[in-house]
Design brief:
Residues 87-107 have a biased composition (Basic and acidic residues). This protein is mostly helical. The protein has seven helices and no strands.
């Protein structure tokens, strides 16, 4: 009788360890996930789930429960389809994402798609420095902005290129 209890305890322990490892893996995936893509997947999953559950309840004679689920599911699927048509806005620059040079959300304004030559005055503004700042200050400001606004951290390619261009203009000037 004791060996059966020991086997049960070992099985429960092994199951607990496996559950912990799965939980840690899923936590790691969740933390590293792109929030935009995660929201899209949730819209799709909950939309399909709502439609399937709504139809199943409606067919089973529970239309009072099925109809609202069906409507919500269709609504989520419509937002998922609509979001797919504007995919790629992340890399179009501030006008597409509604942010200014500091990465703050703001009113959507038109910014030219072309990258024109940057003046020293613009470069100082982009890096948030006073005119006449030294090369070390320029490098520090560039590094701080890139840590916040790098495309891998949620910034856009356009912002990163403007920050790099500003640093290049001011470093060339100080030589």
């Amino acid at each position: 009788m004791q060996s059966g209890a020991i086997r049960g305890a070992v099985f429960a322990l092994a199951l607990g360890v496996i559950a912990l490892l799965v939980f840690l893996y899923l936590t790691r995936v969740y933390v590293a996930a792109d929030p935009v893509r995660m929201a899209q997947r949730m819209r799709l999953s909950f939309g399909l789930g709502g439609v399937i559950a709504g139809v199943a309840l409606f067919v089973a004679g529970r239309g009072g429960f099925g109809l609202p689920l069906l409507v919500v599911g269709i609504g989520l699927l419509m937002t998922w389809f609509r979001r797919g048509s504007v995919e790629g806005d992340e890399n179009r620059g501030p006008s597409a994402r509604g942010e200014d040079l500091k990465g703050d959300p703001g009113p959507r304004s038109h910014h030219p798609a072309r990258q024109s030559a940057m003046t020293e005055e613009e470069a100082y503004k982009v890096l948030g420095l006073d005119p006449g700042a030294g090369a070390d200050e320029v490098r520090r400001a560039h590094r701080a902005l890139m840590q916040k606004l790098h495309p891998d951290r949620g910034g856009s390619d356009w912002l990163a290129s403007r920050i790099n261009q500003a640093k290049d203009v001011l470093i060339r000037k100080s030589r």
